[in-house]
Design goal:
The complex is a heterotrimer.
Chain A: H1 12-15, H2 26-30, H3 35-63, H4 74-110, H5 118-140, H6 154-158, H7 163-190, H8 203-235, H9 248-282, H10 289-302, H11 318-346, H12 355-378, H13 380-386, H14 390-420, H15 426-452, H16 467-497
Helix pairs in contact in A: 3-4, 3-5, 3-16, 4-7, 4-8, 4-9, 4-14, 5-7, 7-8, 8-9, 8-10, 9-11, 9-12, 9-14, 10-11, 11-12, 12-14, 12-15, 14-15, 15-16
Chain B: H1 2-33, H2 40-61, H3 69-93
Helix pairs in contact in B: 1-2
Chain C: H1 2-5, H2 15-50, H3 52-59, H4 64-89, H5 93-123, H6 138-172, H7 182-205
Helix pairs in contact in C: 2-6, 2-7, 3-6, 4-5, 4-7, 5-6, 6-7
Amino acid sequence: MTDAALPFVPPLDVRRGSYLDEGHTILSWLTTTDHKRIAILYALSITVFFLIGGVAIGLVRLELISPTGLFLTSDEYNRLFTIHGIIMVWFFLVPSIPATMGNFLVPMMIGAPDVAFPRLNLLSWYLYVGGAVFTVYVLLSGGVDTGWTFYPPFSSEYSHSNVIPAAIGVFIVGFSSIATGVNFLATIHMLRAPGMTWFRLPLFVWSMYTVSVVMVLATPVLAMSLLLIVAERLFGLPIFDPSAGGDPVLFQHLFWFYSHPAVYIMILPAMGVVSEVFACFARRRVFGYGFMVFAMLMIAVVGFMVWGHHMFVAGQSPLANLIFSFLSFIVAVPSAIKVFNWTATLYRGHIGFEAPMIYALGFLGLFTIGGLTGLFLASVPIDIATTDTYFVVAHFHTIMVGGTVSAFMAGIHYWWPKVTGKLYNEFWAQLAAITMFLGFNLTFLPQFIMGWLGMPRRYHYYPDVFQIWHVLSSGGAVILAAAYLMPLVYLTWSLFCGQDAGNNPWRSTGLEWQTPSPPPKTNFLRPPRVDADPYDYHDFGRTEETGGEARARPQGEA
Amino acid sequence: MTNGRQQDRRYLWQGPGVAWLALLVLFAVSLGSAYLPLGTGNVAINLAIAAIMLAVLATFLMDLRNSVALVRIAAAAGLFWIVIMFALTFSDFLTRG
Amino acid sequence: MSDTAGALQHPWPDLRMQRAGVSLGMWMFLASEVLFFGGLLVSYAVYRSFNEEAFRIAGAHAQIVYGSINTVILLTSSFTMTVALRAATANVRRVTLIFLGITAALGVAFLVCKGLEYREDLKEHLFPSPQFPLSPPATAMFWGFYWIMTGIHAVHLTAGIAVVLVVWTLFKRRVIPVQGSTMEGAAIYWHFVDSVWIVLYPLLYLAGRS
């Protein structure tokens, strides 16, 4: 695709190459305010933590092959699953799609030169690093054993582990979330290019908008809950201490007020990615765009009203149980709407099975299963039996790993040519995607079964009858680990030896694809004028592709 | 000439000054009423006055009435979400057996 | 003309939009701060509703004189901050600098007063420890909240004072012009810190007066 077809891009002589060419020193990366570079800083950071969190749980799964353990003490076991949870939730999943793909793509998708507050963006990454420093300290000094949920009175009084540094690390990284959220909201409200009306926004941008609302409003409550734990532990202030009238369940209210919306922080971006991938690789408009937007808004809002379903057996009143259960059933409805609409998008589309699509299809199936098992858990009688069993563990991993990580991988592969200008090896990517799907199911389907049969979670030693399920699950984990390592290899390889991607190898109609790959620092020469709806693909069937160019109208053509 | 400048300068402190006086009066009423034996009425009055003070501060000192609708929505969102937190948390605590 | 040019930041197309953007961003941050303190407030509310008498007894020991003086100081500082903001928008640099300075000074006065008050509280052993003098046990809960609420508020106020001093210096040295967007953000934040105190004051100081 020649530059002549890209009317809003600075010409070659002006743009000095891509954003990657603007400074090659480490300092230029560490002091950048370019949203694209900050996205890459985040991507590298979260990859490191994904690997650390993965190693932690790898050790746990290895240990669980035997009902009486192999090489860990119970104390070490507790610390490993705790650090796995803390790292995976706050240092991988929460930032994953928003901080990497959101940062890189939101300005480009709306036709803006950068986010609203570029320096705040860089600060948000440094806040992530600050929180990460505390977490690494916790790792190196023996860990924390409270579970990622920090429940008192164990965390506030009885635990002999590094609760305070762990809590501080999470507190700090929370502000990274809030900063990102504020930035995205201001950007999307105020920096859209002329003609980019709200209902012409790609669904990915809507997902970034809704996730930002959740991040800004939920995260501070987590911060307060952890601050109160630290205050009790450090200064002896009796906030959750029953002897002074305190109630540990109050902590749970504050903690889950954040941590339930947190799971929507993890899934909304995944939904946005998957919408983009389905549209492009089925060559179809997303079915029911308006309902898709409405669904995301409803998830973001109603998601704040269901937190008590984590506390059905904690001592919450039956009336509150009823209210939270009812609202939890309601919040499943918009998610279901989205699953129907994605399916309808695929129907009679011309589906290509490139790696992003395989990951997205895996998302569709696994998110459905995970969501349905969530409905089981929303029912109070069932939850009373399944709370604190592997059924819950399998449920949330199906959504977070089967769902969010699949979508994260889909997005990485879909936008890899945009970010790096290189093509990855499609065969190895497809193999990794299929391996991941198979490994995932072998890891977590046995967990659903043994949870239903009564295997408790977080247990180090367990009755022999569950061993077969644990062995299957651990075997699956080995395959899953291999599937995660494969992209590290072939993606890195593509950086050095990959084919040049050209500007738009997927022939996508998104505004971010109407620029060179990799893009210049300023994204667009001047704000593009938008006069087309997103996903301007055919309604039915694949477009006539004679010269390899999509029929899609170039954005903003005069 | 100087008259004109003084007129301009009055804009700087006149409106805010009235708001400030209103806040001081409300504060005095709140403080004074706290010494009257009204039982639970005390906390109700104090919180009501605090709410009015916040409204005065937001409207006249933070200039919320001249802001774009979006800013007012952001402010309202914070309040709406805190109401959700209070309502659902108390739905548990007030109905414990 | 060259004055305002220094105020425009990438990626904003013009100063008016930048000011609107900073205002919007700051109010969104405030929404998150409302929820931050909200967690504290809901906890206080839950415990107070179950320990009315204990909270009344405990609240009677809060230093009403210090608390009231501090309230007047903060309300006045909101007034001076508003004057500074209006002066900045009207490009009256001298008044901006003067009133920013007064605002910071009032903030410091609050902290000094608070420090003296903390000293009195500690002399009375109103900190959860074996020498805590009050009963029933839930009075310790009130005092736990007192220290956390006023402490976190003081941290926010200190941050606000630091911001005001930095902004004052940037204006004084003409690094940025006064009618940019910085003043807007600083003022909104300052008023928020005052708002928090307006809510905390009745909860902590007027609890046991009658």
